[in-house]
Amino acid sequence: MNVKETSQLTGIPADTIRYYEKEGLIPKIDRNEVGNREIDEKIIRRLTFAKNMRAAGMSVKALREYIRLVDEDRDNTDKQKAVLREQMTIMLAKRADIDYAVDHLQYKLDHYEDHLKKTEEGWRD
């Protein structure tokens, strides 16, 4: 399967597939006799994993480290879990920030007439 077909199948833009390869998030992709990438099921599974982890907020650096641990010839379960725990900590902090922002906006909406509108009127004076 070529990059365009893989992109259509996975929903990952072709440029992102090339970027993931360059960054080591997926193994080097074999090329055919004319130089086009030949993507197999193993690469598609790795692409899907990378896409899902990026959607979960994992940085390219952290994902590269996780994949390096997976690809080593020894059991790195504890280290892999540590990378995932760190990502969970990061995402929980982001969720707390988002929750605060949502609560703040809800407060502003709930008190628009008696608070925010009066404050805005003071901006024009």
UniProtKB/TrEMBL annotation:
Signal peptide: none annotated. The keyword DNA-binding applies. The keyword DNA-binding applies. Pfam families: MerR_1. GO terms for molecular function: DNA binding; DNA-binding transcription factor activity. InterPro entries: DNA-bd_dom_put_sf (IPR009061), MerR-type_HTH_dom (IPR000551), MerR_fam (IPR047057). Residues 1-69 form the HTH merR-type domain. Keywords: DNA-binding. This is MerR family transcriptional regulator protein. The lineage of its organism: Bacteria, Bacillati, Bacillota, Bacilli, Lactobacillales.
